[in-house]
Amino acid sequence: MTRRCRELTDDDFAGAIPARVRRRLIQGRFECGADVAALRRFVRLTQVKFAEAMGISVHTLRNWEQDRRKPEGPALALLRIAARHPRILRENLEHAA
Fold it and tell me: For a designed S-S bond to 58, which of 17, 28, 51, 67 qualifies (C-beta 3.0 to 4.6 A apart)?
């Protein structure tokens, strides 16, 4: 049986993270705000939905993404889990509703 691959869309490319960067994020090594933003785009969530799924304020997320603050402690652990298992954030949104 031949299995067909679906065509990649512009959204697929916009949300793509290079494998080396994703490995680094899975290890919890978020070097800059662009890493947090890349993870959010990879999961395909808006800032509002990503913040809701993480249980943080949009203000906090924006501070991370704009390098005004860095995630630490439990937030860093949640980001690491989200990088490894991105569906968890979407599932968290479904259960919160």
Answer: 51
